[in-house]
Amino acid sequence: MAETYLFRVGLLGILLKKFRYVLILQPIYICFTLVTGVYRIKRLGDNYDLVGLWNKDELFLLLSTVHKCVAIIYYVANMRATLDLGSTIYFDRSVWVSLVKQYKMEV
After folding, report:
1. Ranges under pLDDT 50 in the chain
2. CB 44: neighbour CB atoms within 10 A?
3. What is the pLDDT of residue 105?
4. Buried b vs exposed e over 16-41: b needs ≥16 C-beta within 10 Å?
5. What are phi and psi of 4, to 5 degrees?
């Protein structure tokens, strides 16, 4: 995002509006990853083996399953954002200047 024309000239509101879903999903996914990882490390430190963790610990199974479901949403959103940012519209100055001029004429 930092290489786009909008970012360079400070039109961050447009970028934030367009990619809001990615910016919201980032901290959610990181939190799920941290909670699941910390819980797993804690349980493995309590003399659980990895197989026992999956077979006997229902909370870990739930955390891991939810984490994987959130991961699917996270990766799809990031792939869509990456493909959207591949569009030349975000890097072309003339497109945004003409849109601003058109907006000023309407107002």
Report:
1. none
2. 14
3. 61
4. eeebeebeebeeebeebeeebeebbe
5. -75, 155
Q: Which amino acid is at 85?
A: L
Residue 89 in contact with residue 95, Cβ under 8 Å? Answer: yes
Q: What is the model's pTM?
A: 0.72
Report yes or no: 84 and 21 within 8 Å, Cβ to Cβ.
no
Q: Residues 7, 15: contact at Cβ < 8 Å?
A: yes
- Separation of alpha carbons 44 and 40, rounded Å: 6
Q: Where does 38-78 show beta strands of DSSP type E?
A: none
> Tokens 């970012």, residue?
7
Q: What does the alpha-carbon distance between residue 94 and residue 106 come to, in Å, rounded to a whole number?
A: 18
